Amino acid sequence: ETKCERVMSEAVASTTAYALQAVMQGDGTGSGARTFDGVPILGKTGIHQFEHTWMDGASTEVATVVWVGNVEGFAKLDRHYESGYRLSRIRNSIWPNMQRAANAKYGGDRFPQPDRELTRQVYVDLPSVIGMSVDEATDVLRSEGFSVTVGDAVDATEAAGTIVEQSPGAGRVVAGTGVTISPSNGKGLAVPSVGGTPDDAERSLRSAGFGRILRECSESEGAPPQGVVTGTDPSAGTVVSRNAEITIQFQAASCGGDGGGRGGGPGGPGDDD
């Protein structure tokens, strides 16, 4: 006599089956183990460091589990072959043969449709945590039901530890969305707006804290011999690391000789004087 105990609701079971059928379709991770016998199947693959692999699957009548791995030792299955099959993929040959035999004897029906309540997307408001500390931002987001990942610190002018980026940004998102927050490292500088001659611009940039300064000249009839600044790359207002290269863009009557090209570097002004 078979005894069984319900461990999940029909709604959860049918919705799970719906998701796991996709594993065996298209480019799903179990598509290489399809049975091609017309019986609906679902599946789940598994792998651990190429030392153990699994192919688990079922029809509505029979479940089959195949494990290929190490009883002793930790040999890498992707480096060994048997009967022309790489061992890390041989599960895809064993499993469908076993499941086809079960399907031939017991058959199988279509899986139930997923529960509508469990598959509908619920949208909620994602708050902005820009300007908060990492701890404060994390608490706010988790209290609203979001999972939080703290990304690498980024160059910014705000005090170190202040959140300056979040992805996705504030707005309507799917409930349970994962949010990545990135704090400032406190080492960012804003590129100042500069003008005048290239030498004037370089002095302004060095005063702002930048040391890696290049020059990019374009010739223009009527421009002054010493050159006139037209902009920078990155542009004014961009926040970058103090070690970033800043290129002064300028026009001059002639860019030959000492009057243009790539000028002063980290060690000091170029020979444009």
Can you give the helix content as a percent range? 10-25%
Helix count equals 5
Portion in beta strands: 25-35%
What is the alpha-carbon Rg in Å?
Answer: 31 Å
Q: Major beta sheet, specifics? A: 3 strands, antiparallel
Topology, number of strands: 15
Number of domains: 3
Structural class: alpha+beta
Mean pLDDT: 91
End-to-end Cα distance:
98 Å
Strand order of the largest sheet: 1-2-3
Shape: elongated
Unreliable residue runs: 258-273
Order of helices and strands: HEEEEEHHEHEEEEEHEEEE
Which keywords apply here?
3 domains; alpha+beta; 19% helix; 273 residues; Trypsin Inhibitor V, Chain A; 5 helices
What does this structure look like?
The chain has 273 residues and is of the alpha+beta class. It has three domains: 10-106, no CATH class; 121-183, Trypsin Inhibitor V, Chain A (2-Layer Sandwich), CATH 3.30.10.20; 189-259, Trypsin Inhibitor V, Chain A (2-Layer Sandwich). 19% of the residues lie in helices and 28% in strands. It has helices spanning 10-21, 91-106, 116-119, 134-143, 198-207; strands at residues 42-48, 52-58, 63-69, 81-82, 85-86, 123-126, 147-150, 163-167, 171-174, 178-183, 188-190, 212-219, 228-233, 239-241, 245-252. The strands form six sheets. Strands 1-2-3 form a three-stranded antiparallel β-sheet. Strand 4 (81-82) and strand 5 form a beta hairpin. The longest helix has 16 residues, at 91-106. The protein starts with 9 loop residues before the first helix and ends in a 21-residue tail after the last strand.
